[in-house]
Amino acid sequence: MTVRTPVYYNGTSIVDMTADHITQWKTYIAYLYATDPTVTCSVVSGSGTLSPTMADTRLKAGAASVTGSGGSAFVAEGTTAEPATVTVNYDKITGPTYDTSLTAQADTNNIAFPAYKDGNNIKAMSATDYVDTFIYATLDAMITASESAATNGTYTISTAASVTNYAEASGAGTAVFLDTRADTSAYSAAGIPETLDQPTTITSYYLQRANFGRTFPTVAPLLIDSSGNLNQVDLTSDTTAFNAILKNDIRHFAAEDSGGHKLSYNINGSGNARGTAMVDTRLNGSGNYQQLQVGDDYRSQEFPNGSAATINTYTFKIVHV
Amino acid sequence: MAYLWSDKVTDFYYSNPESDTIAVLWTDDDGTTREHYIKVDEEDEQWRDFVAEFPYEEINRRSDVRNENFREEFREAFRSWAQREDVVFGDADGNPKNKFEDNIINFLSEFDNTDADQKEKLFKLKLKIFEQDVVKNSEKEDKFKNAKTFIRKSDNPTDVLLGYMVFSNGAELKLSDSEKFEVEGVYIPFK
């Protein structure tokens, strides 16, 4: 199992690909994967399988105290109901779901894969070398936290429903988590008794799948045919023999590799954070005591107040398993 | 390194007292300021990339600036509250800066019922009186009902205190003979 350096024909000689050439190929393979991913996450209405359930908490007002006819004073601050916490659970991501219908490409006649230099000889890569060189290397690049065309087809979290080069996973702009807080501007003394729960959405978080466009590599690997000739891989089509093999294998190994390169996702588990963490923020005040007298009614109520603080952080991560 | 926030960061700070999450403010292509959160985790590549560009010292500095702004807002709110509530602060020796007797006399003799702050104080004085047991537990006699009405309708603190004396000192209101509720005077017996 060795990572080989593929060769290409530069017009005069057969030479090793540069690191930049190999990066071009990894990016192209990621594109092939993105056209039909085999490790998917989806947005559901509830009971998603990606643990844990994420809780959005916010404050709501305490119940109003009203001293009716015959009373003659407001209920004191120490006696009025305190603001309480409302919790809304989000469990909207299901996955990862694996398409395991594919099998790895066989090394037909031991010449199915690109050529490399072995001293002064040109040899075809073995199946394992080919997987190391093209497939595993691409899968390694696909799980970085930093995102680019090299992470095509993988998922991330954004705070915008629409992001350039990404496809929103639900297809309908459905957020997977909402961070809400009490809308302090909605509460007023004149409105006592105020509706207890008056939230406002601070941030919506969306599941996005990278969907970068295709760029063909600039140099072509060489394949050895049954007559011993070297042939350049076609650089203009996704469906030529070798490119089809790449697509098959990146999809197969991403979904069911047993060598530690299978793609997986989790929340707050191991791996690299993808996109923004999802945070539950909440006001941290102990209550804004307000009063209102209406005729013989003495009304008092405590509204949510304080500064926003992060209560919980949920990080969507990508990892190899 | 490529993140949505790359080259577009406008501010960042710890978003909780535990300092285990930072909020990164960045501006998207439409000019919208967006928040991006990163868990503080040295094992995480995104966090390492962030601190490589924005070191811990700078995160601490910006967090301190933001927290100081909040503290100043709180101080201002506290000063405003203290002013509204007439909270008396002592000097360095613990002596009140405003003398109690001065405050009382000023409130009674210089009361201005066109001044919102003073009207608010009068309102609170009425509330306090209604919270007194002697008022709350008074019997349902006309003289006490009238006294409560008198207190409610009073537009100055002296009248409010006179109304209170009906409950506390056995004072009696003298009402006019007109149908309209009108108090002509108050009789206060020596005990």
Write a compact overview of the structure shown.
The complex is a heterodimer of chains A (321) and B (191). Chain A is an alpha+beta fold.
Helix content of chain B: 40-55%
Order of helices and strands of chain A: EEHEEEEEEEHEEEEEEHEEEEEEE
Please estimate the helix content of chain A: 10-25%
Rg of chain B computed from alpha carbons, rounded to a whole number of angstroms: 30 Å
Please indicate the percent range of residues of chain B in DSSP E strands (runs of 2 or more): 15-25%
Name the biggest interface: A-B, 29 and 32 residues
Count every beta strand of chain B, where a strand is a DSSP E run of 2 or more residues: 5
The value of Rg of chain A in angstroms is 29 Å
**In the residues of chain A, how many domains can be counted?**
1
Question: Helix-strand pattern of chain B, N to C?
Answer: EEEHHHHHHHEE
Structural commentary:
The complex is a heterodimer of chains A (321) and B (191). Chain A has helices at residues 19-34, 127-142, 241-256; strands spanning 7-9, 14-16, 39-43, 54-60, 65-67, 84-90, 93-98, 115-118, 121-124, 155-158, 166-168, 177-182, 199-210, 222-224, 230-232, 263-267, 272-273, 278-283, 288-294, 297-303, 308-314, 316-320. With 321 residues, chain A is an alpha+beta fold. Chain A has one domain (7-320). In chain A, the strands form nine sheets. In chain A, strands 10, 11, 12 and 13 form a four-stranded antiparallel sheet that branches. In chain A, a hairpin with a 5-residue loop joins strand 14 (222-224) and strand 15 (230-232). In chain A, helix 1 packs across helix 2 and helix 1 (19-34) packs across helix 3. Chain B has two domains: 9-85; 100-187, no CATH class. Chain B has helices spanning 45-53, 56-85, 100-109, 116-131, 133-136, 142-153, 157-168, and strands spanning 9-14, 21-27, 33-39, 172-175, 183-187. In chain B, strands 1-2-3 form a three-stranded antiparallel sheet. In chain B, strands 4-5 form a two-stranded antiparallel ribbon. In chain B, a hairpin with a 7-residue loop joins strand 4 (172-175) and strand 5. In chain B, helix 6 (142-153) runs antiparallel to helix 7 (157-168). The model of chain B has no long low-confidence stretch (mean pLDDT 86). Classes of the chains: A alpha+beta (321), B alpha+beta (191). The interface between A and B is medium-sized, with 29 and 32 residues.
